[in-house]
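Researcher: Let's try something more involved. This one mixes different molecule types, so please make sure each is placed in the same coordinate frame as the others.
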Amino acid sequence: MSETHDDLSIELKHLIIETLELEDVALGDIDPDAPLFGEGLGLDSIDALELGLALQKRFGIKLDAEAEETRRHFSSLNALKALVETRRVD
Amino acid sequence: MTFTPLSQAPWRRPAPHVRALPSDWVSPASLPARVGAWRRWLAGRPGGQWLLYQRNPGEFCSALIALWESGRVAVLPADDRPETLARLANEVEGTLPDAPDVPEVVGQDIPPPLALSPSSTAVVLYTSGSTGDPISLAKRFDQLDAELAAHAKLWPLTGTAVISQVSHQHIYGLLTGILHPLCAGVPFCGDTSRYPEVLAARLEEAGSAERKSVVVSSPAHLSRLPDHLPWAQRLAPCRVFSSGAPLAAVHARQAEHLLHAPVVEIYGSTETGGIAQRRQTRSSTWDPLPGVRLSFKGERLLLRSAFLDTPDAWWQQPDRVAPAANGFALLGRADRLVKIAGKRVSLAHIERTLAETPEVTEARCVDLGRSDGRLGVVIALISEAIPHCHEARRDLIKRLRARLSKHLEPVAIPRYWRFVEVLPCNPQGKLDQGLIRRLFADLDDTRAPRWLGELSSGADTCTLTLEVPERLAYLEGHFEDYPLVPGVVMVQWAIELARESFGQQGDFQGLERLKFQRPLQPGIRFSLDLTRREDGIAFAFISREGRHCAGRVRLRYQDGVGASHE
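Model: All components are placed in one shared frame. Result:
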């Protein structure tokens, strides 16, 4: 894993914690492969909408209408990172 | 195509020719075949009440019709959590599967469809009562038809296509997103349309089929519409509905601006069906729906309508209202129920569930009025259970969340947790708004420690219980894997909190006997001992690990305590 990748992981963790006001979650609590929703970090359907907005604001990423694909992107931190790496426009 | 009431089986009318829409849409013409499949599945099974939870609007609608035409009643659980389904399973004949896996057999004997009687039960819905226990509400066909007729009069659907972002397991989504389009014979879609990107795609699809869209939405969705999506003027819906909770005025304006369409809010409840409507960009007060009669008793709203179980009796709504020109203004709930993402949540239920945990002595759940709508909770614990570090706090929250998730939907679970040994209280013995604000002040002030209580043992000494918030702004700039509170910040906290505890203070003159003994890390719970001295204050930061920092601050007191010109 390169330096840049680590930076992006940390940036995404900050983004998740700040956007969703997860006051009891520290950076080290987000396991890159654990599910973000349901079990794991415990995010819900409202968080999914918030996260979609934040990704657009921060990275210019526009999610598409394929709902299944959207859900896959949000499945874990690493999946989210892969999305940002391929689709960021900033 | 014109409006046909449910009791006259609109799905049995010859379907008009409509321009094809993609497969995510339910077209009226596609229904009879699916209804037939569900009727075959039901043939030979017991009559009575059947549990129906189905995300796909086409399958939902077909299964619903098949239940009706076979003389059965549809029981619609509010969610599909295993506990909910298990609890209801005992009260019904069975649960409908995701799909009717029955091949068509030539000559199979299916009973002919029954005519629907207006006075028979169509659906049983669930909502949360004031105690938090789910209550079931049966709706007859005449109630549903009366309300659908009111919708048809106010908002005819001719030539439209209906896109729903909300669940049809609840009364609003059922009436507006499924039954009205069914009665009007127009295409509809739902489920994944709850995502804004999918909504944009569906608007485009409706436009390509030369249909005007009608969007059935909620404050949870309309307050989170991204502005970058192609919300084109040419695809403007003729109407956007919102219900479930009042929409903030700013979100009403923003949604009208983005979607180029009027946003019409419907006020009502599972018990009453629709009561009133408003377009907030025109008026903040609510006008009654056709057929709804209003009366006021103090701040309480009374109503009569054909949508009620007993139309000729006055129903008292648990919301507080103020009469207005043609209707009323909503002032808030009279009980301890709040709406989160449109779901009715009982604060008392959350508190009771938490208090059943052995280590919890008392819990107070509070609506913080934050824009995210999330709840906070203040929990008194036996002292052995008090978390003293980040990991312990996180584990405790995880366990309490897991316990709540058996009873609540995820969005209803509190997001902000404050653990105390006893609930803080004012001189009247109440955990009042001021104390609640103080307990949660660090949410908006990322420079403050988290305040969890205060104990005075005389006019000149006090001990505050505090926590280092994980999101403290001062932690930034330190190593990611070893964040700590800078010493200067600890001194600043001591000075500021002494001012709050002891009142007026003098000018800073200097520091004495300052000792930093151990780092103070995020998540640590600590006490701050403050003593007022003749020439200033003394302070000590102490946690379970030991003493972190102590010292004295010299202050020069002004003459004339409390003098306003100083």
